[in-house]
Specification:
Layout (H helix, E strand, L loop, with lengths): L2 H27 L5 H31 L2
Helix pairs in contact: 1-2
């Protein structure tokens, strides 16, 4: 995998994270909040954030290695 591929993957994940954030905002605006759904969305957002961090670390490592 190249640094560009890792960055592209991070960007894709960021798009998915943003979709989940919007869904969470909609849920919050709905009035009666479904606590289980909110927790699930927050867990998904946290997992996506971890995956983004991993891809950015991978891109940085590859870039540093190729000098």
């Amino acid at each position: 995998m190249s640094a560009d591929e890792a960055l592209a993957r991070a960007e894709e994940l960021l798009g998915r994270l943003d979709e989940r954030r919007v869904a969470l905002e909609r849920l919050a605006d709905a009035g009666e909040v479904d606590g289980d759904a909110a927790v699930d969305l927050i867990a998904e957002i946290a997992e996506l954030a971890r995956q983004i961090e991993a891809e950015l670390t991978r891109a940085r490592t590859i870039a540093d290695a190729s000098g």
